């Protein structure tokens, strides 16, 4: 039996803990792999012997977008023609957004991510609400968020922009880069560690930054089409690329609208200063509105908290509650359906026992 440590997977993040959790699969003769991309019922995996295209074992939960294999997953590959991805290892972190359809399910964008780089272009007006939403998503995932302000060469005052973003990103590093001049790329490389995923709208400069970090033009980039800053969707799929200083990069296609999914804790962390202020409110269930003794309103009155932050916080809390209610409704419906199926089977059993069976 081969219990060798797959050195070739170390640049992709393989470590002793993964080796440990893989032991049962080693005994079955399976090989450790990292999933680079999943499409059309197949996947690209990195094996100790290089990349391979594999089929998905029908036993994998492919129907559930929250549990289906995705970029960044570690798994076990069964040799064959084609090789088959037979199982997934438990995820350390998962970036989950609400799936497009009905938003009652979560969809995993990437698994086992250590650092979420939120790309924000300084070329266009700062969309702080979007940054806050992505920060909540990132905190919820268990990964560490970093805001990367891109295209510094296109901004009249990058420092002022960085200060504004920092106010909307408590607890997160904010770095400023320009791929055009090379400014800040070394700082970004130093803070973006482990498995790094680039998130942000199309045209934000994710792939360009990715290439600067990779030290090679491996990712396709696209010119911004027009003045509204909407880019073309140049990045069509997620990929897994080892970084020269260690770590792995996952580029993503631009995310236009990202819905939160079950992200209450992520929202709390993204608005940590409001949560902290709320500790000082007179009422434990203060709505931070017109209640007497509200420490949050007092901070706003004193100019210590931008009112925009409270609005944004409220919006994301409400959105998250709405989606939680919908997914609760879906679970209840699934339970009811299961019950219907069970009682139907029982009725059929009763009919059989009742002698209506014609003896076939
Ligand atoms: N001036 C300038 N342009 C940039 C910079 N980074 C990216 N761009 C341009 O912005 C456009 C979109 O970049 P891209 O990396 O494809 O964005 P993505 O959609 O987020 O991957 C491309 O035309 C890039 O050349 C930068 O630092 N400075
Ligand atoms: Mg791109
Ligand atoms: Zn209050």
Automatic annotation (TrEMBL):
- Enumerate the spans annotated as EngC GTPase domain: 111-256
Question: What's the Enzyme Commission number for this chain?
Answer: 3.6.1.-
Q: Which cofactor does it need?
A: Zn(2+)
At which positions is GTP bound?
150-153, 200-208
CDD domains documented for this protein: YjeQ_EngC
The record's SUPFAM superfamilies line, in alphabetical order, gives: P-loop containing nucleoside triphosphate hydrolases
Q: Does the keyword rRNA-binding apply?
A: yes
Q: Which family does it belong to?
A: Belongs to the TRAFAC class YlqF/YawG GTPase family. RsgA subfamily.
| Protein name (record) | Small ribosomal subunit biogenesis GTPase RsgA
Species of origin reads Actinomadura parmotrematis
Q: What is the lineage of its organism?
A: Bacteria, Bacillati, Actinomycetota, Actinomycetes, Streptosporangiales
């Amino acid at each position: 039996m081969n219990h060798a440590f797959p050195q070739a997977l170390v640049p992709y993040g393989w470590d002793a803990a993964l080796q440990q959790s893989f032991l049962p699969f080693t005994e079955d003769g399976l090989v450790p792999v990292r999933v680079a991309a999943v499409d059309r019922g197949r996947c690209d995996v990195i094996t100790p012997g290089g990349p391979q295209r594999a089929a998905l074992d029908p036993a994998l939960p492919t129907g559930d977008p929250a549990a289906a294999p995705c970029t960044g997953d570690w798994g076990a590959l069964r040799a064959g023609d084609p090789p088959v991805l037979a199982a997934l290892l438990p995820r350390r972190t998962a970036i989950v957004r609400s799936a497009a359809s009905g938003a009652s399910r979560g969809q995993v964008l990437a698994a086992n991510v250590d650092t979420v780089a939120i790309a924000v272009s300084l070329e266009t007006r700062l969309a702080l609400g979007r940054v806050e939403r992505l920060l909540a998503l990132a905190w919820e995932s268990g990964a560490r968020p970093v805001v990367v302000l891109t295209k510094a060469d296109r901004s009249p005052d990058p420092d002022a922009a960085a200060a504004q973003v920092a106010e909307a990103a408590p607890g997160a590093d904010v770095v400023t880069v320009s791929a055009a001049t090379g400014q800040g790329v070394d700082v970004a490389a130093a803070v973006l560690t482990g498995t790094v995923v680039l998130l942000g709208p199309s045209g934000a400069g994710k792939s360009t930054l990715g290439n600067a970090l990779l030290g090679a033009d491996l990712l396709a980039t696209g010119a911004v089409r027009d003045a509204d800053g909407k880019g073309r969707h140049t990045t069509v799929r997620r990929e897994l690329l080892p970084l020269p200083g260690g770590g792995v990069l996952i580029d993503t296609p631009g995310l236009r609208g990202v819905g939160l999914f079950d992200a209450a804790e992520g929202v709390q962390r993204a608005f940590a200063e409001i949560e902290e202020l709320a500790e000082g409110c007179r009422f434990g269930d203060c709505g931070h509105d017109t209640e007497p003794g509200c420490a949050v309103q007092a901070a706003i009155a004193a100019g210590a908290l931008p009112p925009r932050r409270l609005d944004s916080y409220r919006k994301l809390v409400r959105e998250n509650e709405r989606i939680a209610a919908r997914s609760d409704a879906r679970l209840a419906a699934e339970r009811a359906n299961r019950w219907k199926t069970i009682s139907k089977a029982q009725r059929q059993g009763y009919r059989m026992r009742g002698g209506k069976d014609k003896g076939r």
